[in-house]
Amino acid sequence: MKKQWWHGKVAYQIYPKSFCDSNGDGIGDIKGIIGKLDYLKGLGIDIIWISPIYQSPFVDQGYDISDYYKIDPAFGTMEDFDRLLEEAKKRDMYILMDLVINHCSDRHEWFQKALEDPKGEYGKYFYFEKGKDGKAPSNYRSYFGGSVWEPVPGTDLYYLHLFAKEQPDLNWENVKVREELFRMVNWWLDKGLAGFRIDAIMNIKKTDGFPDYEPDGEDGLVRCTRMIEEAEGIGEFFRELKQETFAKHDAFTVAEVFNMKEGELEKFVGEEGYFSTMFDFAPLCTTLGENGWYDAPGYEFFRWRKALMESQKECRKTGFFANIIENHDEPRGASTYLPDYAQNDDGTKMLATTSVLLRGLPFLYQGQEIGMKNCKMESIDEYNDIDTKNQYKIALEAGLDEEAAMNVCLKHSRDNARTPMQWSAGENAGFTTGKPWLKINPDYKERNVEAEEKDQSSVLSYYKELLALRKSEDYGEVFTYGDFVPAYEGEEMLLAYYRQDERKKVLVAANFGKGETSFLLEKEGKEILKNRKDVLLREKELILPGCGVAVVEL
Ligand code: GLC
Ligand code: CA
User: Fold this and answer.
1) Is residue 453 lining ligand 1, measured as CB closer than 6 Å?
2) What is the DSSP string of 34-92?
3) Cα(432) to centroid of ligand 2, in Å?
4) What pLDDT shows up at residue 218?
5) Which of 29, 166, 169, 256 does the annotation list as catalytic?
6) How high is the pLDDT of residue 1?
């Protein structure tokens, strides 16, 4: 495999609004990030992905961009951003921005001009279509609920938005749109960005003619992914995007890919792939519902483990996945992918180990390293997220009472991950001196960076050890390039695998069960990491208590 500069690195996602506020307005900002670079370096982070900080009306928290060339004043200035790049460089760290190019904001100049004259030049930047028999052009449901078509007042036209109506889809068929976007991407890369996380990118190719499909819900609509899955030729766009931008800068890219067609992995993340890597969402998707959050099956160890193993096996000959247990669109990993009895620090460390040592690029999400948990809100008004409000409504419509609908949000809301970072036990968790824009999880008194830095047995101390091991001189090579081989597949509640190359073989074994388990290794091994004192290696026998994990060199 051809070596790339980003192989073997560890990445970290910052949700800027909630990371660190430097000026007391209750909103995290770029200066706040700069102040925490040493903390991240100390943790073992090399690459930082920052969720959108471009100018935005924040209907979808910055994923609705009104000017791609501006930093939103809530986060600071372009000078602040340039300083961030410099400060990161001094520390051998790399900055990724979020690239949101399936859609922009309805406040973007292009869309404003398009509305004035939908038949004119800028109208062609978007999708304006005539209605059919007094109804929308087709029957697709948007990701955030309701039709994807919004009528344009005073005309017989509608415009397309797969997400919120304030996020009109850009028309990638128009070469001018592609040129504008490529110019913008190069402008940022020229500044010294290391690359991008690429948002919602599978949506850029639409099916010609927007055909109707059989409705799949009471609202008479059908999920818009039906049309996206059927679209042909998205690869052409990806190839051009890469050629015109990323390839020229040796940039790193990680794509948000859902609904990839079978057998296409090589095209996406192979050596000549469209992207450097893409997130592996398969294990996370095992907790999704058919019709919404309210009918989600919830976490089930066997289903989750199977999905994880399948992904790893699928990718090992092709390229690298980016491995995550949480992000800004998901509830907290430590609250989701552990059985009830394992929702404690031991369990959190176990989950950390099995996730970070997978083959691929580990992406941590802010707060994951201190074991942050889902946050209970008292009423729906305490939530900010557009998707949570929609899913709450869907749950009520499906017949759930308010309490049950709130419980659904507690389990699934994107705001679980968006509550402010917990830096200390001080006022507002040390996140801000003002009023935080979103509720702070009350557990910050115990769970915070300051306290965990002092405690050798904390989740944070463990993460530091784990990341150091992953990148160490002795084991960095095998954890980066070594093969992934499932181990002890017959053992009920065990998640175990080998990472191995010609020189080394390492076993990662975690007991997700309640009670103790033990089994024989193929030979005597050397313990290189464990999360509990009572994880024992006795000659060839490995004894794992419930929530115990061991990393053993064989
Ligand atoms: C992606 C983002 C999500 C956003 C959506 C629309 O899925 O991760 O936060 O709402 O795209 O841009
Ligand atoms: Ca601020």
Assistant:
1) no
2) HHTHHHHHHHT--EEEE---EE---TTTTSS-SEEEEE-TTT--HHHHHHHHHHHHHTT
3) 8
4) 87
5) 256
6) 83
Tell me, letter by letter, the H, E, C secondary structure of 294-359: HHCCCCCHHHHHHHHHHHHHHHCCCCCEEECCCCCCCCCHHHHCCCHHHCCHHHHHHHHHHHHCCC
Known catalytic membership, residue 199? yes
> Which of these, 191, 181, 319, 168, lies nearest to 240 by C-alpha position?
181
Range 117-133 burial, b when 16+ CB lie within 10 A, else e: ebeeebbbbbbbbeeee
Q: Which protein residue's CA is at the shortest distance from atom 6 of ligand 1?
A: 63
Ligand in nearest proximity to the CA of 437: 2
- Nearest bound ligand to the CA of residue 32: 2
The alpha carbon of 246 is separated from its chain's Cα centroid by a whole number of angstroms, namely: 21
Q: Could you identify the residue written with the tokens 């904390």?
A: 458
Dihedral (Cα; 14, 15, 20, 22), 10-degree rounding: 110
Query: In the structure encoding, which two tokens stand for residue 3, read together?
Result: 């070596």
Q: Give every CB contact of residue 313 below 8 A, 6+ residues apart in sequence.
A: 484, 486
Taking the centre of ligand 2 as the mean of its atom positions, its distance from the CA of residue 34, in whole angstroms, is: 13
At 544, the amino acid letter reads L
* Nearest ligand (C-alpha, residue 28): 2
Summarised one tens digit per residue, pLDDT across range 411-451 is: 999 999 999 999 999 999 999 999 999 999 999 999 999 99
How far does the centroid of ligand 1 lie from the alpha carbon of residue 60, in Å? 8
How far apart are the C-alpha atoms of 283 and 514, rounded to whole Å? 21
DSSP type of residue 246: I
For 331, phi and psi rounded to 5 degrees? Answer: -70, 175
- Is position 256 annotated as part of the catalytic site? yes
> How many whole angstroms separate alpha carbon 6 and alpha carbon 9?
6
pTM of the shown model? 0.97
pLDDT in tens, 346-368: 999 999 999 999 999 999 999 99
Answer whether 411's CB lies under 8 Å from 331's CB. yes
Quote the CA–CA distance of 183 and 321 in Å, as a whole number: 28
Which residue, judged by its Cα, is nearest atom 4 of ligand 1?
63
Give yes or no for a contact between 461 and 470, defined as CB atoms under 8 angstroms apart.
no
- 140-141 and 222-223 beta bridge pairing: parallel
Q: What is the DSSP letter of 168?
A: P
* Residue ID of nearest Cα to ligand 1 atom 12: 63
